[in-house]
Structure formats: structure tokens, C-alpha cells
């Protein structure tokens, strides 16, 4: 039997996941934990499982905080309503990332992927596994941002550009700009490349919101919604920019 635990603070989500996992006869859920604090204590006092299903946003922090405090060789399948943590998730022992509501078919595929990494089935080492998983990273489709004490979900389709200012990366929408937890380098790895392009060190723009392109004396882009600063294409990126516009 494959020893499994669930880390999730929403009871309906726990019940649904337990029900879905019950369809797999070779999985045994040995614990359901609902906070960072409880999970750290459990890992310190119990034999670690082989597989972990974990939400990311918990009542007392992010589940990443758990693995900053305890070390485990267990593989992790993240289950969350927000996909903005994809990049960080894959830096840990994550082998998959499922967005809620979890579908049985997606869950089955994630479990099969986990089984393919088991030693008896020829898995090599964690570094090679991470390289395999890295190639399968999903693109970002929505971002969770903070507005004072409130949270807001922004669809990636609403974003005209991302830009860096005073060491903070903002996203721009029709409504306003919002600070994010990303760097532009990280965003390049999780944005859909056919839709977003990094025109310079400061800006990543969306093709959906290009209003005008000036070609002289330099390439300059006007977006429907953008900060006050001009957006120019770096000279060394002009060719790639034109290829991107042409769909190449």
C-alpha cells in the first residue's frame, strides 16, 4: 500500500479528495492535516508517507512553510484553487499540480505519474525527476493579488503587461495595477509564450492589448492599458519581437 496524507484546511475539499482517493485500492490515507503547525508536528512525530496531497494556501500560512521546517523525501501533488504558485511548487518535491475542483481523470493521471517514479519501476533520482516534471509545468492562467486586507483573483486574460518598478513586479489591467510576488524572470517561465513577450528588462507585454507599434527611431509599443512609462523594445530583441508578432 502507498501511504498517503492530505494537507487541506477546507473540510468539503478533504471529504471530496478522500472519496476520490478511495477509488484507488493501492492508496491508504493515513492522516488528514489542516494547518502548517499541525503538519509540522505530525511530520516530526510520525513516519513520513510516500505521497502527499497538499493545498497551498492554509489558514496559518502556505504549505511551503511546512517543508521549510521539516525535510521529507515524499512526493507532493499540490491541490489548489490558485495556480500562481506553480513555479515554487516545482522547486520542491512536487510531481504535479492540480487545480480545484479536482477531476477524477486528472487525479488518476497524477497518481500514475507518481507511480512511474517509484524505484521498483525504474525511477532514477530526484534531480532527473524534477527535470522531467519541469518540462510539464502548466502555464499561468490566474493570479491572486492583495488589495489591502482583501484578496482578488485576476485572470491572465485581463493582464495587458507585467512591469518592474522599485524592485516590485506589477500587473496592469483595465481597472488598475496590482503588485505581485513574482519576478519577471519567473513569469517568463510560466506565461504562455505565444501570448506574452518580454520586450526589455522591465516589461512583459500581452499581444491581446497591443494598440500601436512605432518603428522609428526605436520600436515602441502602445498598449490599451499601461503605466505612464513608454514601452520600448530592446534592440537585441527586435527580431524575436517581430517573429513573435508573426506567430513564429
From TrEMBL:
Pfam families from the UniProt entry: LytTR, Response_reg
Keywords for this protein: DNA-binding, Phosphoprotein
MF annotations from Gene Ontology: DNA binding
rRNA-binding in keyword set: no
Domain of life of the source: Bacteria
UniProt modified residues of type 4-aspartylphosphate: 55
Domain HTH LytTR-type: 143-247
This protein's record includes keyword Transmembrane helix: no
Domain Response regulatory: 3-115
Protein's name according to its UniProt entry: LytTR family DNA-binding domain-containing protein
